[in-house]
TrEMBL record:
Transmembrane segments: 68-91, 98-116
Domain of life: Bacteria
Protein name: DUF983 domain-containing protein
Pfam families: DUF983 (PF06170)
This protein's UniProt keywords: Membrane, Transmembrane, Transmembrane helix
Keyword Transmembrane helix attributed: yes
Source organism per UniProt: Chitinophaga eiseniae
Amino acid sequence: MSTQQPGRPNYFVSMLTMKCPRCRKGHMFRDQNPFHFKFSKIFNMYDNCPVCGQKYELETGFWFGTGYVSYALSVAFSVFNLIWFWLFFGLTWRDNSIFIWLGVNGVLLVLIQPWLMRLSRAIYLYFFVYYDDSTAQLKPDDHHHDHADHHHH
């Protein structure tokens, strides 16, 4: 009963793999690995989608809004950790397990922060840019020739 057209990449998969929201083929980031020690590398994005040319930074300061998204993700992640920690180890004040959870959660949050920062950019952009079937079907080389090469038969 899925309403997905064949060939249309899944919304959440595309978002999680940080593909262009318009064609869902091009990557948003030049480097697929978010875990770098150099901070500038984390946000090393293309200005435009390498596949369909969609501009990523829709306006100057566009990425400021991602702060809220990344905050929400951090909270969701913490809640998720709280639940599995509680299920596996139980949480009580008596044996300091709350503090252990806080420690574990803090460390995990710091570790995945680069990925969360990137993901929040992807999610944010997906709010504003919609999937466009026609751009997804263009082959990248169609942009350059402009069909002129079809006439010399």
